[in-house]
Design brief:
- The protein is an all-alpha fold.
- It has helices at residues 7-38, 50-53, 67-70, 87-100, 104-129, 136-147, 152-156, 161-183, 186-202, 209-220, 225-249, 273-292, 314-332, 339-351, 374-388, 406-426, 433-440, 448-465; strands at 76-77, 82-83.
- It is built from 18 helices and 2 strands.
């Protein structure tokens, strides 16, 4: 005798099918949008620092046989220096070389593919975190993140695949820790720690998730403080183990990198808190500008694009007032657990590694440094847009009649169109070493290092012709 299905069960099953269909459509939309705006970059060649990790790299050119050596040697090396340990992205280039040879077009295609999957997974993660909100919030935040022109460096520069993997691993780890909070199953915490370590092996940017993961659990789950401390302890132990593991893998060989003044003056003149803190607030000004107005972009900044200013400089003072007010108010309001405050705190935490206060950043500022922090920016902007147009996204599961919000649709369409066009026009600049240097020097004429890179390429071209 067949079991009679209740009307409630039928409605639940129907909702699940609608939810599944909706997510499939959104995934296809994000995937197609990603290739639409980045697809013209597939025909690009090598550029910038690609030679350090893929172009004529001896370990990579060994193919699969070179992978053990990749995991036991430094990330980048030449005649005078060797430094870093980021084997994950480098190993993928060895795999590519095994099957496709030295083919930059395949590499660019794979970079876009990784970015597309990252954005799709990001939508599902945000949908899980914002479970009480209408899907328009995670979709808008993800789409704003996807089309932001600041990401052209991490997608178009093959060397920056380490950033792509680091972020993808970090958000996957975050998802697993959220699952741990929901189920209290230790396996999710252990697997989450393992994945975060893998993300760290892609690029150390993942370290900021030591703070982001507990922050997220506090905002979006009902997990106890005891379990949050367990999560923090688990991640710390994972990082300590991999720290000693890297030492063993490198067999005691030390990193030796030559730092030069034009990369960042703080490498030579270390300064103190009175010089570094003002530079930190000034650095944020440049990043605010990049995030809100990503028009004049550059593959490299460095000396003297960003001057080192005194604490009494008006720009530094203004940045300090704005930053401390916004960050301080978000901390003060943390108990409200509002999504906008999460986005703000996420941004400042993940950006903290690149403000030149604790450690000097290569090039002083860089667009790739804002790849992970820009998620916080996208969340905040998405919330503000929905609030501005009074879209009823809070605690809503039913459909929203967007025909009633024509100005909202118009603004979002204009934003996405402008950003998409900027990405599409930016991709060809990364065609090769010369094109990116020659184009970007117009945007940052004060960059000494970029002048040197361009001069070296022009000299190389003249030498080859003779």
């Amino acid at each position: 005798m067949k079991k009679k299905i209740s009307e409630k069960e039928l409605m639940t099953d129907k909702r699940k099918k609608i939810f599944f269909t909706q997510n499939v459509k959104i995934s296809i939309f994000l995937f197609v949008l990603c290739f639409l705006i980045y697809g013209n970059g597939i025909k690009n060649d090598f550029s910038l620092d690609d030679e350090f990790v893929t172009l004529h790299n001896p370990e990579v050119e060994k193919g699969l046989k070179g992978i053990p050596e990749i995991f036991t040697t430094h990330y980048a090396s030449d005649e005078s220096q060797n430094y870093g340990y980021r084997p994950i992205a480098k190993a993928t280039y060895a795999i590519e070389y095994q099957f496709f040879g030295q083919n930059p077009h395949i590499s660019h295609f794979i970079n876009i593919l990784i970015y597309a999957f990252t954005c799709i997974f990001l939508f599902f993660l945000l949908q899980k975190l914002f479970k009480n909100e209408h899907f328009i919030l995670p979709l808008l935040a993800t789409t704003l993140f996807l089309v932001h022109p600041l990401h052209t460096e991490v997608v178009d520069s093959l060397k920056s695949r380490d950033s792509l993997f680091s972020f993808l691993g970090s958000i996957f780890s975050l998802y697993l820790f959220v699952k741990y909070a929901e189920t209290t199953k230790i396996k999710y915490a252990l697997f989450g720690t393992f994945i975060l370590v893998i993300a760290y092996l892609s690029k150390p940017d993942a370290m900021t998730f030591l703070a982001i993961i507990p922050l997220t659990l506090y905002f979006f789950t009902d997990v106890s403080y005891k379990k949050i401390f367990f999560v923090i302890a688990s991640i710390i132990v994972g990082f300590l183990l991999i720290h000693f593991g890297i030492k063993l893998a490198l067999n005691g060989t030390h990193s030796a990198r030559t730092f030069i003044f034009i990369e960042n003056p703080l490498y030579i003149h270390k300064g103190n808190l009175f010089t570094r803190i003002p530079l930190g607030f000034l650095t944020l000004v440049y990043y605010y500008k990049m995030l809100f107005f990503p028009v004049y972009l550059s593959c490299y900044y460095g000396y003297n694009t960003v001057p080192i200013l005194h604490p009494d400089n008006i720009i530094v003072i203004f940045s300090a007032i704005v930053t401390l007010t916004v960050a301080g108010f978000s901390v003060y309001k943390i108990k409200t657990k509002k999504i906008i405050f999460f986005g703000i705190l996420y941004f400042f935490i993940t950006a903290s590694m690149f403000l030149n206060v604790v450690v000097p950043a290569v090039g002083i500022i860089a667009e790739r440094f804002m790849y992970i922090p820009s998620l916080g920016f996208s969340i905040v902007i998405a919330v503000l847009i929905l609030e501005l147009f009074k879209i009823p996204y809070k605690n809503v599961v039913q459909k929203i009649n967007f025909k009633e919000y024509k100005f909202f649709i118009a603004l979002v369409f204009i934003l996405l169109s402008l950003c998409s066009c900027r990405v599409i026009t930016r991709n060809p600049n990364w065609r090769n070493h010369y094109t990116i240097y020659a184009h970007d020097i117009k945007n940052v004429p004060e960059s000494a290092k970029l002048h040197a890179l361009l001069a070296a390429k022009e000299f190389s071209f003249v030498y080859d012709q003779t």
